[in-house]
Amino acid sequence: MTEMTTTPDGDNEPQVSTRKPVGRGGGDPATRGRTTIADGVVEKIAGLAARDVVGVHAMGSGLSRTLGAVRDRVPGGSKSVTRGVKAEVGEVQTALDLEIVVDYGVSIGDVARAVRENVVAAVERMTGLEVVEVNIAVSDVKLPEEEEEEELQPPRIQ
To answer: Which of these, 76, 82, 74, lies nearest to 119 by C-alpha position?
Structure first.
């Protein structure tokens, strides 16, 4: 778009306008607008990634696992993949707190390191957010004989 302007000495000189035409977007279409990611989305990704690590028996504290087991038995109830995961999501970064139960006999340090690596890789790959920290609290160790006792107990809710 070219406009003519008159200079103080009376000459007409073409002037190039920097205005963009109305009704047309500018720049790369992929950069128009904003994407927000809910805390729950990051929590699901992190929960699934943490459960994939060998040595992680379960996620969450004893109380949350008990309530989750009851919820799982109710018709229409679904397994919560976010149990034991808390995320704080900003515009470009996220921080995660995980509570895990490890299997007896595994190295807790190795399991925590593997969980951290797996969670960071999955969250950064899927969301594009920078994971600034993954705090892991080991709340229990699952003993081999505990599994047998759980399976033998009848459900309390019918």
So the answer is: 82
Say how far apart CA 148 and CA 141 lie, in whole Å. 15
Q: What is the DSSP string of 29-86?
A: GGGSS-----HHHHHHHHHHHHHTSTTEEEES-HHHHHHHHHHHHSTT----TTTTEE
Tell me the pLDDT tens digit for each residue of 56-97.
Answer: 999 997 654 455 555 555 565 555 899 999 999 999 999 999
Q: What angle do CA 37, 102, 132 make, to 5 degrees?
A: 35
In 3-state terms, what secondary structure has residue 98?
Answer: strand
Angle between helical axes of 39-51 and 108-127 (0-180°, round to 10): 140
Buried/exposed 77-108: b ≥16 CB within 10 Å, e otherwise: eeebbbbbbebebeeeebbbbbbbbbbeebee
